[in-house]
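Following up on my earlier thread - several people asked me to post the actual chain instead of describing it. Fair enough. Here it is, all 365 residues.
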Amino acid sequence: MRSFHLPWFRINTKTDSTKITQSLFVLFGIFFLQTVLAADPVVIKFSHVLAASTPKGMAAEKFKELAESYTKGSVRVEVYPNGQLYKDRDEMVALQLGAVQMLAPSLSKFGPLGIRDFEIFDMPYMFPNKTTLYRVMDGKIGANLIAKLESKGIKGLAYWDNGFKQMSANKPLRNAEDFKGLKMRIQSSKALDAQMRVLGASPQVMPFSEVYAALKNGEVNGTENTLSNFQSQKIYEVQKHMTLSDHGYLGYAVIVNKTFWEGLKPDIRAQLEKAMAEATRYERRIAQEENENALEKLRATGKTEIYILPNESRRIWQQALLPVHDQFAEVVGRGTIQAVYKIAAEVEKEEKLNKDNNSSAKAKK
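Reply from S.P.:
Thanks for posting it. Predicted structure:
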């Protein structure tokens, strides 16, 4: 009796031909199944807690569109807005466990995660303009901060923008003293906590999804947020006064589960990075536009009195809140704060030079 061996089974030359045929069908079935599975797209669940109509929500959809196009269907992005999958308190843990692959949490979320350096973005009047802000985000400071996420099993891909924050309450907020005794909702951030305490207010940490109801029932008296968030979440229905203070900043970091990201094929990662870079440029552009549009919509409701903080009052607010910078110098790094100050001074000098040059050019005409 002669026999020969294959890796999967032993065939005897006297074996019934029907059994051989059946074995070949099994092998073919395994090969076919492996081929089908290999063709299945990689699924990225992108969860966030804001409305789809916000800059973050629209940029998430833009990334989905670009990612699926650039990978030619090898990746499918499922976007879940408004905390449909996970709320503020749970989304970061869900990402670390791999229950979702991508988030865009506010930068304030990383302090409670143990990376207190990110609280540089929560410090009041730290960034005088968007030019300074973007140079910080897109430069060495931003890169160093993003790199620190990897120790938590997180890979940072980009910084997204939602603009400068304004103050609101059911009483006018004209002077720093007007905050005394107010219960002000904040995100979970020690720097934001310190900011409100310096103003004499009582900070109340609360998930974003609960803010409207808390303002309505008087659990809190006021809050801080960007114009687009005030408008999209209808905060104007439960706040009678808003002060355009630009006192703080609200931004996001787009992050992915590190193990998931590193497990992707290099060519897929490259296409996703390309899609993210393009989506980020789009997001930053529409963030400015959406905040401008939101201001007009808020004014049109007539439900909230909007007060523009004069320059002199703004300087007084800045002086009142400056102690927060000193208080957190050791937390976020005194050198980091000084580096931001330096970038801001450079931008101010450049803007002044451009203004002078434009004035000279006009004078020669």
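The CA atoms of residues 168 and 321 lie 17 Å apart. That should answer part of your original question.
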